[in-house]
């Protein structure tokens, strides 16, 4: 979450523990279903009606596994007790991203401050110093549903 978004959310009036104040989960789900149906009609895309709240959990877990390749990390992130339940996301990742090459953005940090900035932006340290004093960092390019790159 960006600092700007955190500031905006922090400035909202605090009328409940959550960010959005729905009396109950059923009200939130009904609102989501209504908006989903309206958007599917507006965009002429009936496939949108097959998206449920739990679909977002599956997508988050699948992309998290794709980026980290850490099945135990995803298992802990989701709160699964059995690894068998988490292996579904390994299969989904292999199925969805089978034709895609891992593509990275690479950056060189020449100072400790530059390295700190890159790590804060989500870059991962790759190798040690080169003859010019630089250190190599990489960050996987984000993939969006439907993109071919």
Keyphrases for this structure?
mainly alpha, 2 domains
Task: Sum this structure up briefly.
With 149 residues, the chain is mainly α.
What does this structure look like?
The structure is a single chain. The protein is mainly α. It has 2 domains: 23-96, no CATH class; 104-140, no CATH class. The chain contains 6 helices and 3 strands, in the order H-H-H-H-H-E-H-E-E. It has helices spanning 3-11, 25-43, 53-68, 71-78, 83-96, 112-120, and strands spanning 104-109, 124-127, 135-140. A 3-stranded antiparallel sheet has the order 1-3-2, covered by helices on one side. Strand 2 (124-127) and strand 3 form a beta hairpin. Helix 3 (53-68) runs antiparallel to helix 4, helix 3 packs across helix 5 (83-96) and helix 4 packs across helix 5 (83-96). The longest helix is centred in the N-terminal third of the chain and has 19 residues, at 25-43. The radius of gyration is 20 Å and the shape is extended. The protein starts with a helix and ends in a 9-residue tail after the last strand. The model is unreliable at 144-149 (pLDDT under 50).
